[in-house]
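To close the chapter, one final illustration. This time we ask the reader to focus less on the individual chains and more on the assembly as a whole: which components sit near each other, and how the overall shape emerges from the parts.
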Amino acid sequence: MSKHPVDQTERMLESFDNLQADKHQLNEYKFLGQKIPRRVDGLAKASGHADYTMDIQVPGMLYMRFLDSPYPHAKILKMDTSKAEKLPGVRYVLRYDDPEVMEAVIIGKVTEFFGVEKPLSGVAHMEGEPVGAAVAAETEDIAEEALALIEIEWEERPFHLDPMKASEPGATLSFPERYTDGNFWNRGIFDEISSGDLKKGFAAADKVVEFSFNRTANTWVGPERPCGVWRWNGDYVEIWLKHQRIHLPKSRISDWFGGIPMSKLEVYSPFQGASFGGWCQIDWNLGPLWCAACVSKRIGRPVKYIFTRREDFFGGSMDEGTYFAKVGFKNDGTITAVDCTAYLANCQWPVFNPTLHIHDNTRIHNQHGQSKSIWVNKGINTPTRCEQLPPVFTQTYIFDRVAGELGMDPTELALQTDGCLGHDMEWVKEEQKKRGFEPRDSLRECIEKGKAAINWDEKWHKPGARKLPNGRMHGISFTWTHEWDDSLGSAEFAIRIERTDGTASLLSMGADNGVDAESTYCMVAAEELGFRLEDVNYNTHVYRGFFRMTPDSSTNMSVNGWAVRHAARILKQKILESATSPSSPTQRGSFLPAFPDTKPEDLDIKDSVIFLKSDPSRRMSVADFVRMAGESGPLSTTENLGVRAGWSEPLFAFSYHPQYGGYNPNSPRPRFCRQAHFMEVEVDTETGEIFVTRVVNVNDVGKVINRMSCEGQQYGGSIMGVSRSQFEEIIHDPATGVMLNGNLLDYKIATIKDIGPIAPILVETGLGYGPYGLIGIGEDVGTVMNCLLGPAVYNAIGKWIYDLPITPDKILKALGKA
Amino acid sequence: MNREMNKVACPYCGDVLDSADALKGHIFQAHKGRALPGPAGQIRLTINRAEHVFQVEPNWTLYYLIHDKLGLTGAKQFCDRGACGSCTMIVDGKPVLSCMMLAIECDGKTVETVEGIAADGHPLIESYVKNHAMQCGYCTPGFVVTSKALLDHNPNPTEEEIVEALSGNLCRCSTYPQHPIAVREAAEKMKAAKK
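The assembled structure is written out below.
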């Protein structure tokens, strides 16, 4: 075969050194950065033909429902399921004390990390926790009716709802099965970071301020509830599961029932009604799936479970807790020291320490941050757009508080403090140069664009200083941080050129959840292959056995984007090599190449047509090329007729990309891309109502690939962030520990009417470590925008409200009216 | 013979008569000329212009009938019950939450679902795709159906009217800003097609 002089596989291996700027970008782009007219999943979703796991029905299927604990902390002493078992239509009642249930380990070796040991426990650690029994019946209604017939004798235990009270010495244990010497996880030290000398830093300050802030429990509200279907086909298993990281449950499930070979295990993740991390970050939902599997195995019928909306509330975002901050600063705005400790509830995942972003984004040298996770008798908290919430809360509140204390414009304070790992911008620019980037000041560019869009210079004012003609107080706020699509992860991708029509199929894990990453991969592949966009497709809901980072997760394009690009470049090389090599080789010889007397580097591909660069009239579409080399498939033997046909090698390439990311204090990758956000509010001081009237999001994504997808993450993240900071909290009755608002009537999320216009602005400095200089955006806006309401309200009424969500009663209280 | 054994119930109104002859007389007098009613629980529905006859249980919702029994899965269950708009269907011209309507109450009604709207080639489908008025897509059919009902009654809605009409539909991905754009674009297309 004729070899191309540039070996793309070697380039792929070179790019694993991802501490550098992308050295091999394209000179011009046809698709990247454009507003593409259609998304690959658009028609299926708009027409109602996109099926989700909730929609799946298989022949003979039973429905499973779970018993929910009425107590926040209680143990089952006795359970009588006989009446439930006799109810017509009930096919099986699985009990917590079933020997197979008691012996089952559902998530293998990582139980401590994820906190779930058994598929069905006999002890409840929160009100509403599915425990004790699972009923499989012909209908959901029958299963529900059967659950009501189960008689239980409970041993009620003392419980905690408040992490601060649970952390007091001598507090009763909230989870004695796991934590026997107190309610702290990991002996109290969860994640800690420090640099410089705090004592010296505070001593150098002109002023030191201490304050605390609080975030109540809030949750993801994934539109599709947790659900799954299990079907045994002899020893071959099919599973449908709502999950955004399908490879994780698959590997755990392969340990079940004495071991199921991965090659006999099919896990389908159809379209997903969004998780935002949420349920998929924990393996708690594997317990119900195990129960469905066990019953299915015992009675020979497929079993489906769907959690109720209320059951979906038994988990939340890992920012719930109380944060204690101390900051020292000089009168010119120089911040000399920062110290912050967060007491967080029920974190089932190591949460980042609260000063992580100050460490990553600023020149502040003296700092210390620490998170402590405390178990209370409420739901599991897990990364929910996202685990960076504690650091972004801290960064916003520290900066806006210092700016407020000094009467400074917070955008000025940000520029004055911007830096990296305790170093100033001179150091940052030198680092950019060293790593092959063209030096840029990302924050300055973001701030300039954002200020112009919101008319900051005219609108910003001293706190409580502007009353509007409608009688409301006007407020405006600003915050900033870096873009962080940068965790460690790996991706595997393959691309196959289909026989007959030459279209390209992207093959990787199915994990669609709406950010339109799949269209983005198609754009990259089409750009790199020289194909028309409509000739590249990705079936989003088919699991092909490859791993990849999920598109909503912390690492999408900065890992998956590389892998798609490598695959496309390797495949293009293969196509051109094939087009210049003898075709249809058999035992009796071969035919001339499609492009005789040429070398791969003489050819190129544009609009899905292969052509000779020196004479573009010599051309052949990829479709014609593959058609003549295999239209009739493996049986083709037209060689006898003198017709050029027969066999050709498959046009298939695979690639992979690993990333060592920077989600830890020892990050080898200084962060260069910034984001800046602005918000305007009106506050009614009579009713306490807040009206968010305008938002401007500015994100330096390095390089825009899929413009509409990026903008979708900006306005979508803004609305979700504002919703969480203005409306959302899970409320428990302190006397009984019972959740009071586990439904979407009482737990309010934002509607189309709740937030004013949003201006999404994208900046492209090329300072990302991803392909083409990109960095991601998916989590970022939805996380940062949780913080901006507090400073906006402060600017409006001159009072800090450090207790999210900021509800009208808190406004009135702050104003001394309640 | 026990006289109770001879008693018969009228299939039209349920009245109990003493004998078959009495029943004949009763029907002749009270129900003459009317077609014999179907068995209890039988309903007739026109779904996306196709006639259907179903035997339903009294506790079945319209959503359950169409999503689980008929298999038209475009309507979605997001909130559980009555709070999100994702299961919206158009019943006799009005958008309703199909999770809040009992199937047995729908006898004789006309139902439109997102599948029917798409099969008719309504311009909303294309404008939703083109304007990315979706992310995870779970709530999208509910928005499309609600928008269709709006355009049926108001072919040229203002942005405020669109926002008002869609204010009962929840979207957790928060695609809200794209919906008025998509609906306006569909309205313009419909207007152009009429000219």
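Chain A has a mean pLDDT of 91. The two ends of chain A are 82 Å apart (CA to CA). With these observations in hand, you are ready for the problems at the end of the chapter.
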